[in-house]
Amino acid sequence: SQTIHQWPATLVQPVGSPLSLECTVEGTSNPNLYWYRQAAGRGLQLLFYSVGIGQISSEVPQNLSASRPQDRQFILSSKKLLLSDSGFYLCAWSPGSTDTQYFGPGTRLTVL
Amino acid sequence: RKEVEQDPGPFNVPEGATVAFNCTYSNSASQSFFWYRQDCRKEPKLLMSVYSSGNEDGRFTAQLNRASQYISLLIRDSKLSDSATYLCAVNFNSGGYQKVTFGTGTKLQVIP
User: Fold this and answer.
1) Residue ranges of A 43-82 with Cβ closer than 8 A to chain B
2) What is the mean pLDDT of each run of 10 residues along chain B (112 residues)?
3) A37 closest CA partner among A64, A71, A69
């Protein structure tokens, strides 16, 4: 069966510090991968999606970036965090673009 | 008009009650529809896909109304454990790529 992992589970970072969140999927090949952010009391905002290694599409201009160095690895990064980057970051995968998306456990980021 | 809209609630219902949520979508060409459940501070989890003819899973019934462009979720015999936020998700064609967009969720509180 397929599983999706995210780490760390929680993170507290100062403003201006870098960020690296990692997501890995097991038990499937060539998944579509997604990064979402959910601010407190808000909906899911799609940040990036990827249909293959090295293929990244950005949904919202911001100071975040994403990379997919391996088929089942998706990384979210920032060089300098802002207060507004605080939120619940969720990685998801799907077999195809219109298929069900399955979410990882998420990383709760607080920027102080 | 938002791509996907939900009444944020909260819906406060007594145990054993029947409750229904609607989710409207703007793109008449949408093809895939889903309901997710999200517990507080947890990741969304798929509750059920929504099929054109409607589908049922135990106490949960999902329906699609293409003419009026909405999907619905009916929960019968509500349990305390049903308390959560329910997100709808709808696929869209954006720039030649099919993407799933999530609603902001409807909060359900089942009261003893």
Assistant:
1) 43-44, 46, 49, 51, 57
2) 89 97 92 94 95 93 96 98 96 74 94 96
3) A64
